[in-house]
Task: structure prediction
Amino acid sequence: MKSAPFEHHEPDTVDEAVSLLESLDDPTILAGGQSLVPMLRFRLANPDVVVDINGIDSLDYLREEDGSLRLGALARHADVEDSDLIDGEYGSFADAAPLVADPQIRNRGTVVGSVAQADPKGDWGSILLAHEGEVIATGPDGDRAIPADEFFLLPYDTTLGEQELITEIRVPAPGPNEGSAYHKLKRKTGDYAMAGVGARLVFDDGVIESAGIGMTAVDITNARATDAEEHLEGERPSPDLFAKAGELAAEQSNPESDEHGGADYKERMVDVLAQRALSDAAERAGTVTVERRVTQ
Ligand SMILES: Cc1cc2nc3c(=O)[nH]c(=O)nc-3n(C[C@H](O)[C@H](O)[C@H](O)COP(=O)(O)OP(=O)(O)OC[C@H]3O[C@@H](n4cnc5c(N)ncnc54)[C@H](O)[C@@H]3O)c2cc1C
Result:
């Protein structure tokens, strides 16, 4: 099926895009098109006006600046996959990028588009939550930083304003005693997650000073495992500690049964994936190797 006709605008600058979002009636932003175009073709989305941001070169970046990793709205999944900066410093991003969809989708789809889409099965939202990142929304009143915790409301619904676009997502650059990881269970290449867990651990003298855990596909939005985070903070890593954290994450998850697996199975997978992610994060922080208790 072909999409219904729509008006197509191609701004060259963020200012131009914001003016269009302000002046046009109910416009839809187009980035990589990997979620939007299928929805247009199946007529699940029928916008009259599309604002295509692919010509805004200033949004095409992935860099560290002022103590943060910053991904502009045109950074593609493949840019993350190919980045030496990511490979060396950002374990969770490096783990997740090659697991998103398939190479064709990764070449066009953007990380920011995935966050904007707010699909609870999307991987990047969980990583943003685990890293306590921010979404930078730009609108007629300028830029505002939305903490990841306040961004996701419901499936496909966020706190982004109607006249705003996301220009950037950012996460704090890791300190020397920090590590992160992402583990995902999917049936085959190209599939979304059945379950996924991102973890970030910051250590101070061998003790976990701060923990962030984000979960994929096991609630109505990407969700934080706050009970597990609290259990970890102030403790030294051990198999028992991570086993309890996995259990708490699973308890806090809220998966639904579907054709890929029952809710009980997915909860068990959250437990397993959380322990794996925590164990890798601790190892990457350079502090300890924590033996894994569970096998799949
Ligand atoms: C078969 C298939 C498998 C997939 N598997 C995975 C997976 O395993 N993991 C995963 O995370 N994702 C997966 N995806 C989704 C993929 O990552 C998309 O690329 C992503 O969700 C959307 O990014 P995009 O740049 O293509 O956005 P688009 O499709 O262009 O836009 C998606 C939505 O976001 C809005 N939007 C886009 N950019 C902005 C912006 N800068 N500001 C405000 N709103 C914006 C659009 O208006 C639209 O509503 C899959 C998609 C498909 C088709």
